[in-house]
Amino acid sequence: MFLISIFQFTIFSSALPVPPPIPVLPLPTSPQLSWQLSEMALFLHFGPNTFTNTEWGSGHADPSVFAPMDLNVTQWVNVAKENGFSRVILTAKHHDGFCLWPSDYTDYSVKSTSWKNGSGDVVGELAEAAAKAGIQLGLYLSPWDRHERVYGKTIEYNEYYMGQMTELLTRYGIVKEVWLDGAKGENEKDMEYYFDDWFSLIHQLQPGAVIFSDAGPDTRWVGDEAGYASNTCWSLFNCSDATIGGTDTKYSQQGDPFGHDWVPAECDVSIRPGWFWHKDEVPKSGLDLLDLFYKSVGRNCLLLLNVPPNSSGLISDKDIEVLREFTELRSIIFSHNLAEKAILSGSSTRGGLNDSRFDAKNVLEEGIYSYWAPRKDQSSWVMYLDFPDLVTFNVLLVQEPIQMGQRIIRFHLDILTENGEWQKVAKGTTVGYRRLLLFPEVETHGLRLVIDKSRADPLISYLGVFRDPFTNTNIVDSTNVVPKQDFRYRLLSKIQTKLFGWLQSSF
Ligand SMILES: *[C@@H]1O[C@H](CO)[C@@H](O)[C@H](O)[C@H]1NC(C)=O
Ligand SMILES: *[C@@H]1O[C@H](CO)[C@@H](O)[C@H](O)[C@H]1NC(C)=O
Ligand SMILES: *[C@@H]1O[C@H](CO)[C@@H](O)[C@H](O)[C@H]1NC(C)=O
Ligand SMILES: *[C@@H]1O[C@H](CO)[C@@H](O)[C@H](O)[C@H]1NC(C)=O
Ligand SMILES: *[C@@H]1O[C@H](CO)[C@@H](O)[C@H](O)[C@H]1NC(C)=O
Q1: What residues does each domain of the chain span?
Q2: Which of 44, 271, 335, 411 is the most exposed place for a label (fewest CB within 10 A)?
Q3: pLDDT tens across 79-136, in order?
Q4: Would residue 338 be called left, alpha or beta, if left means φ above 0 and alpha means ψ between -120 and 50 degrees?
Q5: CA–centroid distance, residue 280 to ligand 1 (Å)
Q6: Neighbour-count burial for 215-243, b at 16+ CB within 10 Å, e otherwise
Q7: How remote is the CA of residue 242 from the centroid of ligand 3, in Å?
Q8: Ligand 4 in contact with 32 (CB < 6 A)?
Q9: Class of domain 30-334
Q10: Cα-based torsion angle of the residue sequence 435, 439, 444, 450 in order, rounded to the nearest 10 degrees
């Protein structure tokens, strides 16, 4: 009996290939996949607030304040492109109600300014420049509108909002993301937004666009404006358990291992303290951005970094400098995957060892469409890396082929010690599109990635080990994998806190 089945297996395995494993629901849609692959987007907060030194404009600023003397959207797009941001999202209308395009439904727009004698269109210019550079376009249309007089009248305002949405989604070519939030001032007029009508309209007019909000439907707010996702971050979610404007932070940050909707998280954060440009504010450092990258893109999310153009209509030199630093850091750390030096093997291979479609080596190929798959019904799932020479590293990168569903629940990384024993150096929960783990630097000849728990057979599309010489990973707790701030920085902020406390108490 045993002999017969081996015989049959050999015949069948050499004759016909085993098909790929069955995907596990929920799965991403095509626009959601395209969104996830874009990894980083640049947010552009721009409008009258840029000129009035405000964050939430009252809606009563004179339109003439909007006077960018050197507005150049090609510069914005180039800054995005040169620094690895593959989409830009513009505040076409912020809460003040001012429209950066000449809407037919209001005069509170670029039409009423002296910029280009009232014949300009920021949305149109950006759409054109982005398309030319191969950068994707996203638009933010604030539901809360502090200028429009019909705001507060449910039917009228929903008509107004959908009229404007239609303008934005029919005049400017392909739009890849529509961004809306539940922000609303206290004591603001009570009214209902017809979200379901809006979402249907958006999907009709731009079938390739994802809709962002606190509750999806396509991508969810991560729940904080610090740009951090949780260590555990599922793209699975229940939209019905979330409301726009009433976010449960923990649920949004972690997602839901039992969620029936695919709604990955987007981490929005500003390079400066405010969302709009203010003369006296300074940007974060390149290292700060690297830390944000680890905690957003490195936790299965998209990083939406706000870089606000200044009142000249240009992205400030200081911000550009910091973005270049960030790009340089990433390129030094990630350009060299040490795993390429290793001999790779899996604890088992779907279709047998000779089926290259599921071979362990596939994890060195970039992208999500080639992957390692273990044989069915295994009790353990391990990938081994043997290095001919000692390698030194402190960063692990793991990716899942998310078009097949998000599967891995828990995993850990072991290294081979000098006396031939396995030693655990890092562990994590959830992988998803892209997972980065930091841990104190190790030196070894061999390592293994062990999948401890998975919703279905785990699949791995990319595996990398890198050396980050900039982040002090020696003070990172590997049981927690949250990178802490650099020691000098912590000391400095301790001194600052002390000083601040002392100043406060003496006045
Ligand atoms: C706009 O910026 C781009 C890129 O920085 C530059 O090449 C171009 O000359 C600028 N255009 C104007 C009119 O200044
Ligand atoms: C704006 O209008 C003024 C007077 O109508 C004209 O002199 C000027 O050339 C115009 N500027 C632009 C940029 O069209
Ligand atoms: C999400 O929905 C699933 C059923 O589809 C359910 O099992 C799960 O408990 C829900 N999550 C929460 C947080 O209620
Ligand atoms: C805006 O940034 C540009 C650099 O891109 C700079 O030349 C200009 O002076 C800045 N404008 C203001 C008002 O700071
Ligand atoms: C697998 O491939 C190797 C070398 O390519 C070959 O020698 C071996 O016979 C193959 N085994 C099977 C079962 O096809």
Answers
A1: 30-334, 338-475
A2: 335
A3: 999 999 999 999 999 999 999 999 999 999 999 999 999 999 999 999 999 999 999 9
A4: alpha
A5: 25
A6: bbbbbbbbbbeebbbbbbbbbbbbbeebe
A7: 12
A8: no
A9: alpha beta
A10: -40
Count of other CB atoms within 10 angstroms of residue 260 = 12
Which residue matches tokens 């970094």? 305
Tokens of 3: 């002999």
| Structure-token pair, residue 77 | 């797009």
Average pLDDT over residues 236-259: 91
Closest atom of ligand 5 to CA, residue 352: 13
Any idea which ligand is nearest the CA of 77? 1
Helices (H), 29-89: 30-37, 49-52, 73-82
What's the one-letter identity of residue 280?
Answer: D
Tell me how far the alpha carbon of residue 100 lies from the centroid of ligand 2, in angstroms: 20
Residue 484: beta bridge partners? none
Under CATH, which number does the domain 338-475 receive?
A: 2.60.120.260
**Cα–Cα distance measured from residue 230 to residue 252, given in angstroms and rounded to the nearest whole number:** 9
Q: Return left, alpha or beta for 178; rule: phi > 0 is left, psi -120 to 50 is alpha, else beta.
A: beta
- In 3-state terms the chain splits into helix, strand, coil percentages (rounded to 5) of 30, 20, 45
